[in-house]
Hints:
rod-shaped, mainly alpha
Amino acid sequence: MSLMPxxxxxxxxxxxxxxxxxxxxxxxxxxxxxxxxxVTEGLRKRAQNIRDALARAGQExxxxxxxxxxLEERLARLESELVAIRTQAEQDAQAEYxxxxxxxxADAERLRRLARLExxxxxxxxxxxxxxFAASKAVELAEALLRRELxxxxxxxxxxxxxxxxxxxxx
Length: 171
């Protein structure tokens, strides 16, 4: 049994140390030769991807900052816009009120004029009806008066007078 618990690395498996270094150097050289180009290309691509991502992030940050400034400006103008909107709404409401009032007044005037015309028409019709009624009553009264007051001699005299007038007209 050895005094050391583990065998030293440089004496393992009976291979001399210089052969192990040579083996390692050849192996490392081959790996370097075979993997140098893909690893370099991969690292270059990764670096380019990182640069592109940083550029995009910078652009997005610039856009976000611009949007933030725009929103802050809009927020600052919001009070004045609200005042302008309120003022415009009040003006619109007043204009609508004036328009409705003018339309109502025009409608009322039109209705008054129509009512006046209708009253005048009804008054004229009543007047004509009253005149017709009065005329018919006058004729009825005259007929009754004539029938009651006209004697047979008066009747004969009127017929004679009328006949004489007709003969005079023929001549």
